[in-house]
Design a protein that fits this description.
18 helices, oxidoreductase activity, membrane, 68% helix, two-stranded parallel ribbon, 2 strands, 1% strand
Length: 362
């Protein structure tokens, strides 16, 4: 199951079991959904989210209060690192809002999402939600999932063979360069958010743009009015670098290195979500640090399920997959990064082989 470039195939035992049970109790997913619903795991958790938002909000206020109190000091870099982690938690909150895990209504979710995303961290809620919805519909599909579209990095050997320019250069060594490149991901999110304002699919671009401009203006004004230029630039880099690396450490283990889909390959919903996702083992600290996305299989099956319920749903999902003979992949956090990096190294083989052939021919 961890072979990076393998296509998603439903094991014969899973297909036969599915055929035997579909008529009696609905689809494999429908039967699982009934179990999950009966356990109350789709119910909202307002108390959890109220406490979570208060704590993250307090951390945000505390970070900027420390920034104001320290003034022109190189200790500001510690504040920058702390705020990078806080921004990561705000991004996770925006993620849960986008999936309507907090509020059932669309308007409340979008309003809160724009406040947290656009105003809080300078990331377009509308752009990210559109992109993330496409990812959930077709996870790890090379033509349909924007998260595995070739950009600076390539995610399959076919993409590597077609790469030109900078992606071709980076692709040769992308496993080594992956974490250094994540230091730029925070900047990339801000730039992509501004660019998205001109796209026709972006809803309410004026509102989103105004909130992004307010965030950017206030952020840069605070840095360059309160700090000397050198310290301000160092704060800016450390803050955005920690933010980017933190997000990458959260999201990379979820699908990278898992089987991919191509063309018309389209298993049923349950298998499409389970076979392309990876869970990360851990305790409550892991749940908090990764925002519950360490239970990626359960999240993809039930995107609107409140994050604190995912751990309990895991037992039902794992048992259900075992009954169907559907592989359920779960590993430790460090091992998940190893698998993702192994995948990046593997898909770069055609580029390195081409270099070796060129040297031999020369």
């Amino acid at each position: 199951m961890t072979t990076p470039t393998s296509a998603v195939a439903v094991p014969p035992s899973a297909r036969s079991r599915s055929a035997q049970t579909a008529g009696a109790g609905g689809s494999d997913f429908a039967r699982l959904a009934r179990k999950v619903s009966a356990a109350g795991l789709l119910d909202r958790r307002p108390g959890h989210y109220a406490l979570r938002f208060v704590l993250v909000g307090a951390a945000l206020v505390g970070g900027w209060t420390a920034f104001a109190a320290l003034g022109a000091s190189w200790w500001q870099l510690a504040v920058a690192a702390f705020l990078g982690l806080v921004f990561g938690q705000l991004a996770l909150a925006a993620h849960d809002l986008a999936h309507r895990q907090v509020f059932t209504g669309r308007r409340a979710s979008e309003t809160a999402g724009r406040l947290v995303g656009n105003l809080g961290i300078g990331m377009s809620y509308g752009w990210w939600m559109t992109k993330h919805t496409r990812h959930h519909a077709n996870p790890n599909h090379e033509e349909l999932d924007p998260d595995v579209a070739p950009d600076i990095l390539v995610w399959s050997r076919d993409q590597a063979r077609a790469a030109r320019g900078l992606p071709r250069f980076v692709g040769r060594h992308q496993a080594v360069l992956f974490f250094p490149l994540l230091t730029l991901e925070g900047f990339n999110l801000h730039v992509s958010s501004v660019r998205a304002l001109r796209r026709p699919e972006t809803k309410r671009p004026v509102l989103e743009g105004a909130l992004l401009l307010t965030h950017l203006g206030g952020y840069l004004a605070a840095l360059f009015l309160m700090l000397p230029p050198g310290t301000a630039l160092a704060f800016l880099f450390v803050h955005q670098a920690v933010f980017g690396v933190y997000l990458g450490c959260i999201f990379a283990p979820n699908h990278k290195g898992m089987p991919t889909l191509r063309g018309s390959e389209r298993p049923d919903f349950l298998r499409r979500q389970v076979l392309t996702s990876r869970n990360v083992r851990g305790g409550r600290f892991t749940d908090v640090a990764l925002g519950g996305l360490n239970h990626q299989i359960e999240h993809h099956l039930f995107p609107s399920m409140p994050a604190p319920n995912l751990r309990r749903a895991r037992l039902l999902v794992r048992e259900h997959c075992a009954e169907l003979g559907v592989p359920y992949h779960e590993t430790g956090l460090v091992q998940s990064w190893r698998e993702a990096l192994r995948h990046l190294r593997d898909v770069g083989v055609p580029l390195r082989a081409g270099d070796a052939s060129a040297r031999a021919g020369g």
